[in-house]
C-alpha cells in the first residue's frame, strides 16, 4: 500500500525541481547527466478556444466595417482576416513565446488558404443544389423533351445519352489505355518507342477538349461524309480525352507493384504474360479500378466535344450508331442559352441537369473508393 | 527428383560488365551446397544464373555452361520458363502473392500456369507442400486467409511450400533467413535438413554459422576490388572450408580476418 505511493512521490520530486536530496548519490548522478528539465521548458499555452475567438474577432471586424463604413465587402473580409490573424499571433507571442507564435501564424495561414480553396466549391454546390432542386422530380428522370414546348418535360433522353456515350467511351479507352500502360511498364523499358508513347500521352493529356471533338468530327467526316451526328462520334471524342488519363493511372499502379512479386512468379516457372495477367494486374487492380472511374468522372461533364459531334435531340435515342443523341452537359447548355417561354422552366431544367452531373461525378468518386477498398490486397 | 548440376567456365555479365568470372563447380544431388563471400562478390548473381533468373534483368547474360543432368540450361532452344519449373527459387525477403490466400499461394505455380487441378488433387498438393515446409500445423485451419497475414518466418516457409509444390529438381535459396529472427531461422534450417533428402539445395548466406551448420559443401566467392569480377576462390567439404581451407583468403574470411 505504502510502497507504490513512495515511488510516486520520489518521481514527482525528480520531475518537479530537478533536484533531490544531496545525500542520495544515485539521484545526484542522475541530476548531473540530465538535460535541462522538461518542466523548465514548459510554458503557458493559449486556451483551446483561442483560434475560434481570433476567427470570431476577424468576422466581427469585417461585419463592423461593412455596417459602419461603405468599404467593399471583399476589402472588409481581408481587413478582418488580417486583424484576426494579428491578434492571434500577438496573443500567442505574449503568452507562449516566439516559436509557438510562428507555429500559430503558419497554422492560421494554412487554415485561411484551405477556407479560400473551399469557398468556390461550396458556392458551386450551394448554387446548383438550391436552383436545381426545383425540377429534381420524377418527371425529370422519366420524360424526354419530346413534344414539350414550355414547362414540364425532363432529361431522361439526356441521362441515357450521357450514360451510353460515356459507357462506350469507357469500353474504348480502358482496353487501349491499360494495354498501353502494360507495354510501357512491362515490355517497353526505356526503348525509343516507349519514350515516344510517353511523350504523346503527355501531349494528349494537355489537348483542349474541343480539339478532341473536332478530331472525331473530322475523322467521321473523312470516313462517312459531312453532316453526320451520331453517338459513337462523341464516344470517340471522349476516348481521346480519356485514354491518356487511363494510361497514366494504370502506369503508375503497375510501377508500384514490387519487382519481387514478378520475380517470384518467374521463379515458379510462370511465363511473363501469365505473370502480368495473374499476378501484376490483380495486385494493381484496386488502383486501376479507381483510376478508371476517376477518368470516367473527368470526361462525363465534357460539353464542347459533344456539342460538335452528337448534337442534340428532344427524343430518346438508345442507338449510338444512328442519329443524334442528347447528353446532359449539351442539354443544360441549350436550355440556358436558348430559353423558350416561360424561360424559367428552361433555366430550371438546366440547373437540375447540372446538379445531376455533379451527383454522377460524386457517385463515381465514392464508387471508386468502395471499389478500391474491395479489390485491395488483404492481410487478414 | 534430385539432380546434379555441373557448371563449367561460367562468365556472368550485366551488359558489358563482367560480374562473375570463370566459375566451375559441381553441385552434388541430395545435398546442401552453401555459397559464402563478402557482399558484391557475385554469389547471388551466380545463384540466379542457375535457373536463368539472371536474364530477367535487362542486359544481363552469361557465357559458359550450366548442365543439369546432361542438359545445358543455356543451350539453344532451351526455354527459360521450363528451366525455372525444374529449378525453384526462394528469395531473401518472403514474398507471398498479396492477392492470394495461403491455399492459393501454395498452388500458385500450378494455377498461374493455367493447370487444371481437381479439388482433391489440389488439397493433396497443398497439404503435402505445407507439411514439407513444416507449416501445415500452423495454418491448416486458416488456409483461406491471405498469405500476407502470416508472420515473416511463416511467410518464408509459405514461399518454400510454394516453391516445392511445383516439384522442382533443385531448390535455390538466396539468403532465405536474413530477414528472419533466430527462431524462424532455426525452423528453416531444420526444414532444409529435411528437404535435402529429396532435393538438391543451393543456399547463399552471409551467416557463416548457418553455412557450417546446414551445408555439406561450401563454396567461397571473393572479389579483388570494386569493378573487378567475382571469382570462386575455393570449394570443398564444409568441414574442410571451415577448419582447414587451402587458400589463405578463405581462412581469413571464415575466421573474420579480412580486408
Automatic annotation (TrEMBL), chain A:
Keywords: Cell membrane, Membrane, Phosphate transport, Transmembrane, Transmembrane helix, Transport. It is a multi-pass membrane protein. Residues 7-22 have a biased composition (Basic and acidic residues). Belongs to the binding-protein-dependent transport system permease family. CysTW subfamily. This is Phosphate transport system permease protein PstA. The chain crosses the membrane at residues 49-68, 74-94, 106-126, 155-185, 197-224, 230-250, 271-297, 350-372. Residues 1-29 are annotated as: Disordered. It is found in: Cell membrane. GO terms for molecular function: phosphate transmembrane transporter activity. GO terms for cellular component: plasma membrane. Part of the binding-protein-dependent transport system for phosphate; probably responsible for the translocation of the substrate across the membrane. InterPro entries: MetI-like, MetI-like_sf, Phosphate_PstA, Phosphate_transprt_permease. Its main location: membrane. Residues 159-368 form the ABC transmembrane type-1 domain. GO terms for biological process: phosphate ion transmembrane transport. It comes from Pseudokineococcus marinus. Gene3D superfamilies: MetI-like.
TrEMBL record, chain B:
Signal peptide: none annotated. Residues 5-245 form the ABC transporter domain. The keyword ATP-binding applies. SMART domains: AAA. Keywords: ATP-binding, Nucleotide-binding, Translocase, Transport. Transmembrane segments: none annotated. InterPro entries: AAA+_ATPase, ABC_transporter-like_ATP-bd, ABC_transporter-like_CS, P-loop_NTPase, PstB-like. GO terms for cellular component: membrane. One of its GO terms (biological process) is phosphate ion transmembrane transport. One of its GO terms (molecular function) is phosphate transmembrane transporter activity. Pfam families: ABC_tran (PF00005). PANTHER family: ABC TRANSPORTER I FAMILY MEMBER 17. This is Phosphate ABC transporter ATP-binding protein.
